[in-house]
Amino acid sequence: MKSLRTRLFMSFTALLAAALVTFGIITWLVAREAMMNDVDDFLRTKATLLGRFVTPSRNRIEPWIEQDMQIQERHFMLQVFRADGAFASKSSNLATTIPLSDEVRRSEHPAGNAVIETLYADGRAFRAATHPRREMWGDPVVLYAQALMPLDNVLARERRLLAWLASCGAAMLAAGAVASWHLSRQWLRSVSSLEEAARGLSSSELGLRRLFVPSDDAELAALAQSFNHLLDRLEAAHTTQQRFTADASHELRTPLTVLRGEIEVALRKPRAAEEYREVLVSNKEEIERLSRLTENMLALAHVDVGDAITQRELVNVSELCSGMVTRLQNLATERRITLHHEDTTTEPLSVNGDRIALERVIFNLVENAVRYSPTGENVTVRVSKAPPWIEIQIIDTGGGIAPEHLPHLFERFYRVDKARSRTHGGSGLGLSIVKALVEAHGGSVSVSSEVGHGSSFTVRLPAA
């Protein structure tokens, strides 16, 4: 597997090479076309000038013409043909006569123009401009004046240009490759330092150390900040897990200790059947506490992995609350609590949700209100509509909750009165389960309380 540095280097070098090749090809094509146009313009001018120097009666290329037109210095040749296309004369630097082409003979170019073409003779290519001379506009051609230049010179210049482009491109590519390797090394050095710092973090240092955020590199700063935010979330999750594990261990250890102690005491000596019965009854209570704790922890585990809601259906909230009040009526009677249900409207109040999960929400809230309210108090389960929500209020007239406890009520294993919770078999998980299940339905739960006047828990769920 190639490293990021190698991939960056190869990608940048490939892009630079492609850019240089494209630039070189375009430059070469444009320069080649410009050179050919210059050659054509030069030959066209010389052919026209030659047509002025020679005449039908004197169609020879005199030495003075060659000298005046500088054929040796400019490396081009001259030819003259009669009106019928027969050869008449050539310059001294042209070794072989090149016949007049049929294209020129058929040309209808008016006076002053020239025909541009490429001719071949003795294995060489020549660029030729032929001027058909006429005495007046529209008159017949009286002679053909031709200027030629070997394409060897043009091709040599093209090759020199190509060599320059290739050498300069190679040098620029090498310089760009070295620069990209150096820059990627410099940039990835910062990434490597972040990686080393991240590798050096241990679980015990999550709350103490964070990655350095550079001020001169926006991308690396964003990466470091994102990683630090991740560390914050991991620290919070790690702390929660540690606290949850410690609290769960404590909650499990207490009933197990009670069970073991009672059993050991019962086994020390033979006892009467009634005494064994008392031990079994006590053990049954501790087992029930363990069972409730296990169920609550299992429910929280489902919430943590997103399985709090297994199915959705239309649930009539009024019927659900009425059934839960009926279910807990015996417990309320046993504790001499007046428990009743009321609806503020006669229309059906329904939500889309998991019936079992919603039953657990109402059960936990109503059971808490009944268990922790003093004897002779009232607990009311009120259902109302506050569009777009349906509100469920569990109101008790008990002793209330002190303000300092309210922000922590929905935390796991939090108890307002640990001794009283232990007496009633509570584990401090009921309200945290309520909050998690309500939020999984897209709702919210809140509490208001006044010491000496009771408490009110309000569940808001989206109306169907």
Explained architecture:
With 464 residues, the chain is α+β, with helices and mostly antiparallel strands. It has three domains: 4-159, Beta-Lactamase, CATH 3.30.450; 218-304, Signal transduction histidine kinase, dimerisation/phosphotransfer (DHp) domain (Helix Hairpins, Orthogonal Bundle); 313-462, Histidine kinase-like ATPase, C-terminal domain (Heat Shock Protein 90, 2-Layer Sandwich). Helices cover 54% and strands 18% of the residues. The protein is built from twelve helices and twelve strands. It has helices at 4-53, 63-69, 71-74, 102-105, 151-200, 218-267, 273-304, 317-327, 329-334, 355-372, 418-424, 430-440, and strands spanning 77-82, 87-90, 115-121, 124-134, 141-150, 313-316, 338-343, 350-353, 378-386, 389-396, 444-450, 454-462. The strands form three sheets. The protein has a five-stranded antiparallel sheet with strand order 2-1-5-4-3. A hairpin with a 4-residue loop joins strand 1 (77-82) and strand 2 (87-90). Helix 1 (4-53) runs antiparallel to helix 5 (151-200) and helix 6 (218-267) runs antiparallel to helix 7 (273-304). The protein is rod-shaped. The two termini are 54 Å apart. The model is unreliable at 419-425 (pLDDT under 50).
